[in-house]
Each structure stands twice: as C-alpha cells, then as structure tokens.
Write a structure and sequence with these properties.
Layout: H1 9-18, H2 23-30, E1 41-46, E2 51-56, E3 72-75, H3 76-83, H4 86-91, H5 96-110, E4 116-121, H6 123-129, H7 161-165, E5 169-175, E6 181-188, E7 193-194, E8 203-204, E9 208-209, H8 214-224, E10 228-230, E11 240-243, E12 246-249, E13 252-257, E14 272-274, E15 280-284, E16 293-294
Parallel strand pairs: 8-10
Antiparallel strand pairs: 1-2, 2-3, 4-5, 5-6, 6-8, 6-9, 7-13, 10-11, 11-12, 13-15, 14-15, 14-16
Amino acid sequence: MFKSLVFNKNFAEFLQLASREHVIAQIILNGQIDNHLKDVGNYISNEDNETISYLPKAKFEKVEDPWNSSRVKIKVGRFVKKFFNEFSITNWNINDSEIERFVNFYKSFFSNEGSKLEVIARSDISKYYLESNYHILDNYFAYGTLWNSCMRQSERNKFMELYDKNPNIKMLVLFDKDEKVKARALLWESGVIDCVSGEEIKIMDRIYTFYDYDVDTFKKWAIDNGYTYKWRQDAKSEIFFSVGGKKKVMRLKVNLDCKNLDYYPYLDTFKFMKKNSDGNNIFYNNDLYTHDYILTSSKGVLPRHVDDELEDEDIDLSWDFDDNN
C-alpha cells in the first residue's frame, strides 16, 4: 500500500534536520518499505520527547482518521529496531551506539524542559535579537527562521533603537533552559489602530522560531492574552491576520517616536512609514496610505522602495508528509 513512511509535520521537520548527520533519519525519511524498512505500520507522529506513535498495518483499512485512532506508542529506540529491516541494520551499521545518538537528538529536539515564555521590552529587545543569544543544537545546528533573521548580527544591533524609544513595543521570547532564545515575536501592545474601524488592537508580529512547532505555542499565547496574530509567518503578508480562526485583511497604523534616530530596523509588518516633522512618525502595514519610506533594508537606512533583502526567505520544506496532524 505504501512505498515509504508518512509523517506528521513536526516529525518531518525533525527528520529533515536530523538527516544532516544521522543515517537513521536518512533511512526513515527516504528509505523505501521492503528495501530498507519493514511494512509494520505507518502515519508516524511524535508524541513527546521520548515517544513516537504509529498506526499498525492491521488497522489501515479499519479507521477513518489514521492520526487519531488505534495508534501504538513506542519508545524511539524500539521504533528503530521494529521498523528497520536486517538489510538496513547490516549495511548501514545501525548499532546500539548509533541508535543512542539518534534517540538523544530526538529528545533534544522535542524537549521543552526548562523552557519559559517571557515578555521583554526596551534594551532587552536588542539584546535578544543578537545571534549570540540564540538557541543552537549540539553546538552545531543553527536552524529555522530565527537563524535566518537579517537583524541578528552584532553590527546591526544599533538599528534596534526604535524599540528602545517606544515602550508600547515589546517582545515575547521563548527561552530554553540555558536562557537562549528558541523563538521570538514583537508585540505591539498599544497604539495600533484599525484604519477602517478606528478600533485599537494588540498585534503579535511575525513569529521567528528555531523549531516550527513553537509557532503554535506563540499563537496560543496570543489568543490567551488578547493579541491578534499574523495569518502567515513570512515577510510578504503584512495585511493578513487570523481573527476567529479565519483570514482577515486588516489595514493598521501606529505612531512611533523616531526623534533623533540615525538607523531603522527591518520591519516585517509596519514597514510603510510616513515621516512627520516632529519626529512622531506613522507606520502602516499597507501601502494604501501616503508614506515616504518602506523599511525593508537590513542596512539600517530608509529606502524609498521595496528592497530585495527580506528578513527571511520562505524555507522550502521539500519532504513529503501528511498535513492532517
């Protein structure tokens, strides 16, 4: 029925990263059933930082939703031994040491032990934009949209003064157990006005993560704390937001103190700036209204047109997975 395994999104992301140095991940991701893997089950999903679940082969034709019915939970190491055939184990030298390395990588990837969410402001925003404060895996893997941020380098940290001058801009940060940043998103806590309704709205800006699955953690926090979040986490959808689980176009503005600023950061959402003589400039999330600059440069300058330098190019997740879970 299947030539290869089918994964949920989070497990597929893990395999894509792990396959850079773990042959076990490479085989799970790309190995065909019968040639490299046993035909014992499918629809593989992560459960926690120690356990994987799958649907046994005998249940394939008996359930309507393979992601939520009759699933078997199994430890990561046992999963490898159960699904790998003798050909793979022998030819790729899958010994106990190699399995242990893979298990430890899995635990590290999915562990939230010691992690915490914290709202920070002013100079701390600049501090935790720095890549020296970013989470890194096994002192080797710099991964995700977080590490693709063009504002992470120390020489660009001087561009962050806009956040220090405006206390209504805060940042939600997910820290790991070592106080390193796993994910972050700017919070526009006050002053954001809907240009159509005149209503004031709290906005969570684009979510940058090391692991994709932490996006959901931020969305849940936004809902619980009265923030509207972006429909897509990219640099090209500044007018689209999630409201009640549906995509909504919102045209927004916010006034910010820009007096005596020499540099400006790249902005994902409120990138269209109208400059006022008193230094209290208006920032829009759309080009429908008159504006003087578009803040899409990673060089701290004020370009008058859209720059090619985006904060992060969309990552091509080229592996095959079932998106139902």
